[in-house]
C-alpha cells in the first residue's frame, strides 16, 4: 500500500507467516512439563486420594507470546525498512558520477553528498566501478575509476569551493575515461545554475554513449548573491540578484563590516514578486562608509553573498590640471604645490604629461579619476570641454580654483555659479576695505561639522553674480557674506569652485589645516569611476593572497592552493585565484566572485537519446528494522523462559539453596544474552578506543613530557593543532634541554588530563559544544595545577568588545561561562612569560595583534613586586586569538605549513620563541621572578 512507508529486502520470507497456524496448533496441544512439589508426610496422607492431573494444553497467553515471537523473527528475516528510498536504476559497465561543487552548492552540500552516497552504494551493490569527478577542482584531480569504498572516500574528502564550475573541462575528462567503459550509467548532480558552454559540455559527455542518464538538480535555486556595491555621494548602494524562478516576494538584510569583523551598518533588500534584482542604499555618514571592509547577506551561507571591498571603494584617484608652467626654482609659487601636499596622504594623484588642455583633459579622463582639480584654468577647447562635461554628468567631481585666467575668461558651463568679470581685492593701497575672515560654515553644506578657520583671511577673490539660489550653493563664505566656496550638482556629478587661488598670494587658506580638511571632505564626497584597464606597457607586481572568501562566505586565511594575483588584468575566479583580498596590510585588492553583469539562470536538462531519470536532492531517511525486531524477539524469548521457570516451580520460595543459585545464574544469562545480542544488532560500530587507559599507557604518559591538544571534531583544525605542536616540539628539542614526546590529542570527555602540563585548545564554532561533564573535567584539571591555552584564531575577525564577538569568541565565552575563571589581564611587560627563556615583548602567532591574556596578579597596580607576589604557581588559563598552532605547524619535510599574516619570516620565529617561553613558564613557574630575592638571600647567608 502506497501510504505505508515500509519495504522488505527479502519479501519472499514473509510467506513464512503462513506457518503460524501450524505453530499455534503445535503449541496449543503440547502441554508444559508437569510441576513437581515436595510435601510433608501429613500432606501426602491428606491428599493421597486426590487424582493426579496433567494439563492437556498450554495457557493461551503463553501460546500468543510464542506466536508473536515467531512472527517477529520472520519479519526480521524479511529485512524490513521504514521510509525506504527508491533505488535509482544504474547499469552497464559502471557509473560515472559528475558533481557540481562550486559556490552555489555550498548551502545544501550535505544533501548532495547524501544523494551521491546512495548512488555509489547502489553501484557497489552491483560491484560496478565508479568514476567520480567534481566540476570545481584542479584539472589534474584523480577521477578514477574507483571501487565503491574508494569513491566514498573521495566524496567525503571533497568540499564545496567558492568558485564557479568548469563543466566543459571536467566533462571532457570524464568522456575520455568512459571510452574504456562503454554503456556506463552517467549521473549528473548539478547546482542548478546555467554556465557558459553547457550545451557543448553535455554533448561531449554523452557522445561516448551511455546506458542511462540520472539527472539531479535543486527543486528551487535558493541562493541570493551580491553583484555590485558602490560608495556613492549620498550612501553606499548594493545590488543583489536571484534566479528568475523565485517569483515570490522576499526580503533580506545586508550587513556592512569593518576590517575587524564588526557590524557597522545595515540595509534591507526587497525582491518584489517576479523580480530577480533588488537594490538598496546604506545611508550612513561617509566616515563609516570608508570603514567598510566587506558586505554580506544575512542567512546566505555561500561565497556569492559576500563582497570584499578594497581601496577603490575608499581611496580616490584625483587628476590635477594647471595652465601655469611649474617653476622648479620656486616650487612654493606653483599653483598645484599646496593642492598636492593636501591631497597626497589620502588620494592617488595623476597629472598629464602635456600642459596643453586639448591633450591634458582627455589624458586625465582616460585614467578614470574620481575627481579633477583645475587650478586657474580659463577657456578650454570645445571638444575637451564637452568630454569633461560628460564626465561630470556621469558622476565625476570637478573642483576649480580661481586665478587671473579664470577671472578674465568669462563664464562657462562648468561653474557652479555665474561670475562677475575681474577679481575683487581687499586691503590694497587704494582700497578702504580690509581682508575678510572666514564665516561659520553653512549648516546645510558638506563643511558643516568642520571648525571655521578664524586665523584665515582673504585678500582677493572672484565674485559670484547674485542669484536666488546663491545661498543654497554656498558651501563656505566670508564675513561680508560673499561666497568663498560654492558647489552644485550636475547630473550624477558635482562642480565645486574655490573663489580664491590655491596659492598664498590671494589668501592664507592654502597654508592652513582647514584647507586639507576641506579638500579631504570633497574627495570623500566623490565617487570612483572604475579601474583602469591594463595596457600592453603596464607592469604591476603580483599581489599575494591576504584573506580569502570561503565556500560558506566566511573570511579566512589563504589556503596553500592560492596564488598571487596580477592587478590590472582581467583575472577570473579560479582555484589559484579564489575570491578575496590580495595584497598586505599596507593595501589590498578586492577580487570578488560575481560582477555587475552576472545573472543567475536555471540550468536545463540536456537533450539525451538515452533514458533520463530525474531525482531530487534528499537525505536518506530509511531506517532498517531488522535489528529492533530481533531485539524484540529476544526480549519475548526471555519472558517465555521466565514463564516456563515459573510454571515449572523453579522460582518457588521453598526451593533449595542449590536450586536458587542455579536459577540466579540462569536468569542472569537469559537477561544478559538478549541485551548483548540487541546491542550488537543496533550498535555494530562500537568504538574499541573508548576503553580507559591501562597501567602501561599511564606509565608511558607520565614518563615523558608531552604537549597535548583538544580534539575538536573538525578534522582540518585537529590536523593543524597536531602539526603545530609537532613544530613546537622540534623547536624545543633544538633550542632547549627539554625533549618532549610526540604530541597527544585528548578527548576532554574521556581521556586522563593530569598527564599533560599544558593543553592547547583551538576554539572552532563548527565543532560540537563540550558537554557539562567535559567542562567540569577541564575545571578540575585547572584547579589541580594544569593550564589550558585557549586560541580563538580570530584576530582578524573580531574585537574584544561585547558587540563585536566573532563566532569563535562567542563559543569561548560559552565555555568559560561554566568554568571558575580567575580575573584576567594582558601579559604585563614585566611578567615571567616575557622572560622565562627569551626576552619577548609580545606573543604573535600566525596573526599578530591580539594580546596574551593570563591570570591577573594579586596586586596588579604594584608593578614593583607583582612578579614576586604571584608566587610559584602558574596561570591556569591563557587566551589568545593569534593562531599559535598555525604559526608553529610544519609539514612532513619540516617546512612551514601555513603562511603568516602578514608574510613575515621573523613573526614565525617570534611565535616559536613564545611557545618556548610558555613551556618554560609551565614547567618552572616564577623561577625568573625569584631572582630578585638573590641579593637578600646572599646577605642572610653572609650573616
Short description:
The chain has 943 residues and is an alpha/beta fold.
Which architecture name of the largest domain does CATH use?
Answer: 3-Layer(aba) Sandwich
Overall strand count: 37
Radius of gyration: 40 Å
Query: Quick one: overall form?
Result: globular
Describe the biggest sheet?
Answer: 7 strands, mixed
Give the tally of structural domains.
5
Average of the residue pLDDT scores: 78
Q: How many individual helices?
A: 23
Structural class call reads: alpha/beta
Low-confidence stretches: 532-539, 653-693, 798-803, 860-871
Instruction: State the CATH topology of the largest domain.
Output: Rossmann fold
Strand line-up of the largest beta sheet: 15-14-16-17-24-23-22
Helicity level:
25-40%
Keywords: Membrane, Transmembrane, Transmembrane helix
Pfam families: BatA, DUF4159
InterPro entries: Aerotolerance_reg_N, Class_I_gatase-like, Double_TM_dom, DUF4159
Protein name: DUF4159 domain-containing protein
Amino acid at each position: 500500500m502506497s501510504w505505508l512507508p515500509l519495504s522488505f529486502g527479502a519479501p519472499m520470507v514473509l510467506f513464512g507467516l503462513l506457518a503460524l497456524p501450524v505453530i499455534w496448533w503445535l503449541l496449543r496441544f503440547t502441554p508444559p512439563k508437569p510441576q513437581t512439589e515436595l510435601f510433608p508426610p501429613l500432606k501426602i496422607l491428606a491428599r493421597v486420594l486426590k487424582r493426579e492431573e496433567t494439563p492437556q494444553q498450554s495457557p493461551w497467553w503463553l501460546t500468543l507470546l510464542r506466536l508473536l515471537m515467531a512472527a517477529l523473527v520472520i519479519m526480521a528475516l524479511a529485512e524490513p525498512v521504514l521510509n525506504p528510498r527508491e533505488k535509482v536504476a544504474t547499469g552497464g559497465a559502471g557509473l560515472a558520477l559528475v558533481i557540481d561543487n562550486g559556490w552555489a552548492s555550498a548551502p545544501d552540500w550535505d544533501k548532495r553528498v547524501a544523494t551521491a552516497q546512495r548512488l555509489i552504494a547502489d553501484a557497489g551493490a552491483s560491484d560496478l566501478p565508479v568514476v567520480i569527478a567534481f566540476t570545481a577542482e584542479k584539472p589534474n584531480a584523480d577521477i578514477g575509476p574507483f571501487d565503491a569504498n574508494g569513491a566514498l572516500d573521495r566524496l567525503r574528502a571533497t568540499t564545496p569551493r567558492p568558485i564557479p564550475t568548469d563543466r566543459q573541462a571536467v566533462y571532457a575528462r570524464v568522456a575520455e575515461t568512459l571510452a574504456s567503459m562503454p554503456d556506463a550509467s552517467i549521473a549528473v548532480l548539478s547546482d542548478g545554475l546555467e554556465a557558459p558552454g553547457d550545451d557543448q559540455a553535455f554533448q561531449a559527455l554523452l557522445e561516448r554513449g551511455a546506458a542511462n542518464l540520472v539527472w539531479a538538480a535543486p527543486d528551487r535555486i535558493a541562493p541570493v548573491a551580491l553583484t555590485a556595491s558602490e560608495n556613492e555621494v549620498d550612501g553606499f548602494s548594493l545590488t543583489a540578484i536571484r534566479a528568475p524562478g523565485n517569483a515570490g516576494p522576499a526580503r533580506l538584510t545586508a550587513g556592512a563590516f569593518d576590517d575587524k569583523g564588526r557590524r557597522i551598518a545595515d540595509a534591507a533588500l526587497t525582491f518584489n514578486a517576479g523580480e530577480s534584482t533588488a537594490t538598496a542604499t546604506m545611508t550612513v555618514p561617509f566616515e563609516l562608509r570608508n570603514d567598510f571592509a566587506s558586505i554580506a547577506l544575512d542567512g546566505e551561507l555561500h561565497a556569492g553573498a559576500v563582497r570584499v571591498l578594497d581601496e577603490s571603494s575608499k581611496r580616490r584617484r584625483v587628476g590635477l590640471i594647471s595652465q601655469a608652467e611649474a617653476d622648479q626654482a620656486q616650487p612654493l609659487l606653483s599653483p598645484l604645490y599646496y593642492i598636492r601636499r593636501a591631497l597626497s596622504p589620502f588620494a592617488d594623484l595623476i597629472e598629464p604629461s602635456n600642459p596643453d588642455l586639448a591633450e591634458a583633459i582627455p589624458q586625465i579622463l582616460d585614467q578614470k579619476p574620481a575627481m579633477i582639480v583645475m587650478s586657474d584654468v580659463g577657456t578650454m577647447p570645445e571638444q575637451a570641454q564637452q568630454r569633461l562635461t560628460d564626465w561630470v554628468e556621469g558622476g565625476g567631481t570637478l573642483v576649480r580654483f580661481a586665478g587671473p585666467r579664470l577671472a578674465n575668461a568669462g563664464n562657462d558651463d562648468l561653474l557652479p555659479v555665474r561670475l562677475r568679470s575681474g577679481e575683487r581685492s581687499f586691503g590694497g593701497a587704494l582700497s578702504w576695505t580690509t581682508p575678510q575672515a572666514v564665516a561659520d560654515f553653512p549648516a546645510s553644506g558638506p563643511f558643516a561639522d568642520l571648525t571655521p578657520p578664524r586665523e584665515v583671511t582673504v585678500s582677493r577673490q572672484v565674485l559670484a553674480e547674485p542669484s536666488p539660489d546663491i545661498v543654497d550653493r554656498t558651501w563656505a563664505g566670508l564675513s561680508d557674506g560673499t561666497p568663498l566656496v560654492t558647489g552644485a550638482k550636475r547630473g550624477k556629478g558635482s562642480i565645486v569652485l574655490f573663489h580664491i587661488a590655491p596659492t598664498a598670494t590671494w589668501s592664507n587658506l592654502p597654508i592652513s589645516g582647514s584647507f586639507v580638511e576641506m579638500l579631504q571632505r570633497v574627495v570623500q564626497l566623490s565617487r570612483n569611476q572604475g579601474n583602469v584597464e591594463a595596457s600592453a606597457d603596464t607592469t604591476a607586481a603580483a599581489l599575494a593572497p591576504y584573506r580569502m572568501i570561503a565556500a560558506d562566505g566566511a573570511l579566512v586565511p589563504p589556503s596553500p592552493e592560492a596564488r598571487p594575483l596580477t592587478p590590472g588584468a582581467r583575472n577570473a575566479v579560479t582555484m589559484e585565484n579564489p575570491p578575496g583580498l590580495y595584497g598586505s596590510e599596507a593595501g589590498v585588492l578586492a577580487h570578488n566572485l560575481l560582477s555587475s553583469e552576472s545573472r543567475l539562470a536555471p540550468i536545463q536538462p540536456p537533450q539525451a537519446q538515452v533514458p533520463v531519470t530525474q531525482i531530487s536532492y534528499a537525505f536518506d531517511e530509511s531506517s532498517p528494522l531488522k535489528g529492533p525486531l530481533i531485539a524484540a524477539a529476544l526480549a519475548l524469548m526471555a519472558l517465555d523462559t521466565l514463564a516456563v521457570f515459573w510454571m515449572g516451580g523453579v522460582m518457588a520460595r521453598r526451593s533449595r539453596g542449590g536450586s536458587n543459585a542455579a536459577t540466579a545464574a540462569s536468569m542472569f544469562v537469559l537477561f544478559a544474552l538478549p541485551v548483548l545480542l540487541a546491542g550488537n544488532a543496533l550498535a555494530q560500530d562500537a568504538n574499541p578506543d573508548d576503553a580507559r587507559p591501562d597501567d602501561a599507557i599511564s606509565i608511558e604518559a607520565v614518563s615523558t613530557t608531552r604537549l597535548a591538544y583538544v580534539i575538536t571534531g573538525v578534522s582540518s583544525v585537529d590536523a593543524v593543532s597536531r602539526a603545530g605542536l609537532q613544530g613546537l616540539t622540534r623547536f624545543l628539542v633544538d633550542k632547549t634541554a627539554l625533549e618532549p614526546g610526540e604530541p597527544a590529542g585528548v578527548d576532554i570527555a574521556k581521556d586522563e588530563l593530569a598527564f599533560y602540563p599544558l593543553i592547547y585548545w583551538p576554539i572552532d564554532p563548527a565543532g560540537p559544544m563540550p558537554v557539562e561533564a567535559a567542562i567540569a573535567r577541564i575545571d578540575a584539571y585547572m584547579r589541580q595545577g594544569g593550564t589550558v591555552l585557549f586560541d580563538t584564531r580570530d584576530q582578524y575577525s573580531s574585537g574584544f568588545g561585547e558587540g563585536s564577538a566573532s563566532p569563535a569568541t562567542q563559543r569561548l565565552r560559552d565555555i568559560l561561562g561554566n568554568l571558575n575563571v580567575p580575573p584576567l589581564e594582558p601579559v604585563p611587560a614585566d611578567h615571567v612569560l616575557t622572560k622565562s627563556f627569551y626576552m619577548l615583548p609580545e606573543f604573535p602567532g600566525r596573526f599578530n595583534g591580539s594580546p596574551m591574556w593570563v591570570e591577573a596578579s594579586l596586586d596588579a597596580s604594584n608593578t614593583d613586586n607583582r612578579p614576586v607576589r604571584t608566587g610559584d604557581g602558574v596561570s591556569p588559563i591563557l587566551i589568545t586569538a593569534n593562531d599559535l598552532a598555525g604559526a608553529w605547524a610544519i609539514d612532513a619535510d619540516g617546512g612551514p605549513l601555513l603562511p603568516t599574516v602578514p608574510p613575515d619570516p621573523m613573526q614565525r620565529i617570534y611565535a616559536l620563541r613564545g611557545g618556548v617561553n610558555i613551556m618554560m613558564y609551565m614547567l618552572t613557574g616564577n623561577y625568573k621572578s625569584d631572582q630578585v630575592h638573590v641579593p637578600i638571600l646572599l646577605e642572610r647567608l653572609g650573616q
